[in-house]
Amino acid sequence: MKKFKVFFSVSAALLLMSVSGLLFAPPFDLGWRFGHSTIVARNLAPNWTTALGEAATQYNAAGNLSFSWGPSHLDPPYSGHVAFEEIDFGTDFVYGIAESYNVYGNLCHLGHCNTTNLKADFGHVKVNSRHNGAYSDYKRFLVLHEFGHILGMGHSSFCDSVMGSVSCWPVANNLTSIDQALIGSWYP
């Protein structure tokens, strides 16, 4: 029944958008999933705590995901954890990246890490500390966007999606109904 509801939600949203002339591609499926529905968030980004909480609330409502706060360090255990860290990228032009550990224990871009089972066991979102003073809606967008990559969402051609490209302005700071339906179908 839940799969029917998800299918109906996505179909209805696409129908409404096509009738109104707003048909767009949902976020691209990157092909992997986070391997856990219970996620322990490690906050190593104290300037981003509010945005982390708001993003967790939105993703929790979209799918069968639950979040709890974990330790504020990068020491083991890692399984089921997502670390959020603020670092200086040395430039203003990089906003954030999403990574995971590969089987050798090295951090790498998600698309290059999990080639065997396509499940990420640990995620690592790095946000650029040069943007610590950004307004709260932008911070929420960036956390939603990078965490969307951890969950398997790629970029969308539609700027109203939190997965819109970084060239979109203004940025979307809430999950759309399409984003929610996609997460709900991947994490039922």
UniProtKB/TrEMBL annotation:
Claim: Transit peptide is one of the keywords in the record: no
Extent of the signal sequence: 1-25
SUPFAM superfamilies xref list: Metalloproteases ('zincins'), catalytic domain (SSF55486)
Keyword Cytoplasm: no
Domain of life: Bacteria
Record key words, sorted: Hydrolase, Metal-binding, Protease, Signal, Zinc
Location of the Peptidase M10 metallopeptidase domain: 141-168
Gene Ontology cellular-component annotations: extracellular matrix
One MF term in the entry's GO annotations: zinc ion binding
Gene3D superfamilies cross-referenced by the UniProt entry: Collagenase (Catalytic Domain) (3.40.390.10)
GO biological process: proteolysis
Pfam families in the record: Peptidase_M10
Protein name listed in UniProt: Matrixin
